[in-house]
Hints:
By secondary structure, this protein is an alpha+beta fold.
Amino acid sequence: MAPKTTNLAIVFADIAGSTKLYEILGDQLAREKVAETLATITSVVQQFNGKVIKTIGDEVMCTFSTAEDAATACCEMHESVEDVNNDLQGNTVIAIRVGMHFGPAILEGGDVFGDAVNLAARMTAQAKADQIILTASTVDKLPPVLRACTRFIDRAPIKGKQEEIDIYELIWQEEDVTRMATGMLSNNRKPEVKLHLRYRDLDVIISKQRSSIILGRSKDCDVPVREKLASRQHVRIELRRDKFFIIDQSTNGTHVRMDSGEDAFLRREEMPLNGNGQISLGKSFIEGPTEVVDFVYETS
């Protein structure tokens, strides 16, 4: 049969840190849990009209006819894999990372080939545990409800591509918390919290009136930072239920230094900001960054 080219959503779902699982759980239990995770992913793929193309070690490659089915399945994969952890003791957690791209692919001999497959695989390589990473062109294929659950990560170089491409994250977990934060009303008056951000001549306040801002190299950011290592839209700080969170969405990561002496490094991760400190985009504090953003936590 001659090869057939058709538009497909290509998805790779990979168990994050599977090698370490064998060290922690032991060979027998780890093997059982990996097999259970792959079976769970396969079940979800079938549930959403997808097709498992192959399993490569601890990774599943699958296809869907629509970007909507693929995105919905990706979210359900994460939800379902949480059940695999129910009988695990301690802090051991099995998690997956997922990459996705929609585009023309070649079907031949029960396998799938082409640039769409390569892009989907590279989106998976960009993802961290508990993330779904997809291309901007795939976001455009999603219905409005799912598109609203995506956020821009970075414009990043991809191996084999001459130009950088925009990559996005599909939020499957955080969105419900954010909706609760904006939708809940309370009759009990609570102290209002504010986070002051100071950079050069800028003084920006995050509060209920302005609950989210973007820092980055782009002049269109709420706080444009003149740091060469910064991404165009490097990091977001948002207020959720009276708590501030910093969410890195960059290539080079974000360094946070608290006045308490604690240093943290984030790359495609988030952490709460519970006090005062400094933020450096892309450059560690050991390197003596000059483009530093100060933040001060206040209640009133």
